Structures are given as C-alpha cells and as structure tokens.
Amino acid sequence: TAVLLAQGHPDALAAPRETALTSFASEHGLTYVGPGYTADLDADVIPEREPVLIAGLGLAFIDWMVLLAESRGGVFERGEDGTLTYTPSGREPLLYAGSRRGVPYHSKISYSIADARPPLPRFFTADLVPGDGPLDFRNDIWPLASKELAGAHYHELFASHPDRTVGTWEEFDAEFASLAWGSSRLQELVENAVPKPEDRIDLERLNRPLGGERYDGLAEVQSRINEYISADVARRSDPYFSTDAAVFSALLSTYMTVGELLRRGRIPAESVAKDVEGWLHSFFSFIASGPPPERLEQLIALNEAGIVQFLGPDSVFSTEIDPATGAGIFVARSASHTDIVAANTLVEARLPVASISASGDSLLRTLHGRGEAVELRATVDSSAKLAVDGTSRILDQDNTAHPRRFAAGPWVAGHNWSAAFPRPRTNAGFFRHNDALAAEILGAARL
To answer: Which domain of life is it from (predicted)?
Structure first.
C-alpha cells in the first residue's frame, strides 16, 4: 500500500508569540484574534465603536474589512460621478491597519493581460543559470529574474508606447540583452532610451512604494496612502500603463523557472523557505495577487468615512503595561512618524505560519514526533516545509526515504514545482510533476 499526504495548507497550533499575546489579553481583559482563515474566525468578538489594531494589509485584511464594515450594516453607494462613499451603521469598530509596506496589495489589472505579453522566458531560464550546484538567491537568481522583469517592461513600452521611447526596440534590445543587471552601462542605456523616469522600472520602489518616506503624523499618513490607493486603482485599469501587465506575465514566468530550479535541486532548503516561500512569494502576492479594484475603492471610502485609518509603513504591534496601574494595552507604531495608537483589541490579519512539528494535523505531528518526518525552516519565524526526496518520498530524521510514503502540496520542500497559476493546456511543470508523482505511487503500490 502506498500513502500520499496531500493536506493542502495544514493548520498550525499557536506559535509562542501568539500564545504569549493570548495570555496577555486574558490577563488584562483585552481581545486578541490570532492568525487564521478569516471565514473560520468569530468577528463578533470585535467590539463596536472602539479602536482596533489590525496587523496586515493583504487579502486577509480585505476579508476583515468586509466583515467589520459592510457586514455590520454599513452601506456603500456610488454617486453620479462614479465616486464610492460609505455610510456607517454605527456598529463598526475604528480600524487602525498597518504592515511592513504600509499599503494594500496592488489592485488586479482589469484590461487584457494577454495583449501585453512579451516573449517569455528570455533572460531567466534554468539552463541559463550557470553551474549545477547550489545557488544563492540574491546573487545568482534574483539578478537574472530582475532582468526578465525589466526586459518584459521595456519590450511592452517600445511595442505599445513608442512615443515614450527613443530609438527602436531592436537597437535597445541588442545592447540590453548583453548587459549584466545592475551595471552602470545598463542604467545609462535605459536613461537614454526612456526619457521619463516614471516610464522606467524600479523594482525596489515597486516592492516598497513608501520606502523611506516620513510624515508629520497619522493625518498626513491618511492623505498619502489614500492618494496612493486611488492612483493604483486608476493605473491598473488604464492600458497606458500596460507595462504592468507585461511585468505580471514575467512574474509568472519567473515562478516557473524557480520551480524548475527547485526540481533540479539547485535551491537549498533554507533558501526555499526564506527566499522563495518568504520574500519572493510576498513580492509576487503584492504585485500580482491583489484584490479586485472594487475592494480597494471600498477601502478608500472606509478611510474617508473614518472607519479605517492607516498606520503607515514599517508598522510594529506590541504590548505595554502602565507602571502606575498595571493595566495592559496593545500599541502600534510606525517608523514613518511618531504617533502611537493604543487599543484593547488586536487582530492579526494573516494566515498561520505553517508547521510540521506543531501542525494542527495530528498525523503530521505524530510522524514528526517519531522521527519519521522532518521539517525545514529558514528561521524560527518562517514557514516549515516537510522534507521529501526527489521522488516526493517522505524523509525521516536519518535522511532515509520511506518507500511507500509520499507527500505533495505547498507545504512540501524537495521535488517541487511552484503551484502558482498553472494554466490549463500549458503542460506546466506543476502538472508534469504531479504526473510523475502518480507514476511513482502506482509503482510503489505494486511492491
């Protein structure tokens, strides 16, 4: 008999930090809602008409936004000029929301992405990565991936917006293709061929759009982020910025190449957890996996109605105790200003950090406890992965593969392809991996 473990995204028991916050809340009469799938959590514990801190501005935050506003009786209405407004019911909390970037994920693109798809891949394929040994993500992978993203951006700019470029694409590409990413000559080439700075791609700015900005206080933060979100919604519906769609396609291509490098065993397990599942997944989600534009319009309306307030970038959430009274409180700060927000309620708008040793699945915990399964982590705070060999057989603590135990899914590290958006009829690596896995399982079952 062969067994395949395919639990999807397993739940996790509370991490030490979450346990500490739960205990703090219980001791001081506060409310703490830890990470989880929003639809499974109890929104009724969130008080009405009180400040509430909410950590995270990703898709889980969007779910909370709906549950704590419109689902409590508030009404969105669109005026004759197209502007969306929100009329509160009086039952909403006052949400103070923040994250590392300080802004929500980019709106989904609402025009045709296929029309702006450049030739891909070009600069980042598994065969173009030198050598055959372990790779360093920052030094070996990201420069090639960056050039892939930039090449897609400029291809679309020359193809669809030649009035914003100098010379021909063929002239630009002939030199661009030969230059190393980050070189001074490449920067000079771009500056000469693309006169307006706003038409050039800036990956660091793309990742941290408010990076380094400072504000006088929360009032200025609201104005800046409201303006940012409004501009993002407008941009993602305007083909004038079709280079965004080209970068989206290049990100998908990048994920596929990373998947092939994973299959070839060229990315160390620690880097899979830290760089691929950590940083790259966060970057991809922020750029290419955001909410529909209507949700961000609702967020703007909620901000203008005073229901949602933005904390700003590099937000940090912690606990404090009043030395005079011994009373505890949750507090939020941002590195971008000096204002501090305190509240009796803290919500973590994110999914649990994956674990094998502390999985919510008792089977996985038991296998790990017996030494028959191993978890891989980049750091104590990063998601854990189940270790398998190149045929997806589960490895034990002695690094021995079990002949008839297999595992597949986003929580597995080893013989793996990225599961990011494999398209039907594309023969994507994700599908080929699953076909090969099925053959392995059938072969093992005959033993």
So the answer is: Bacteria
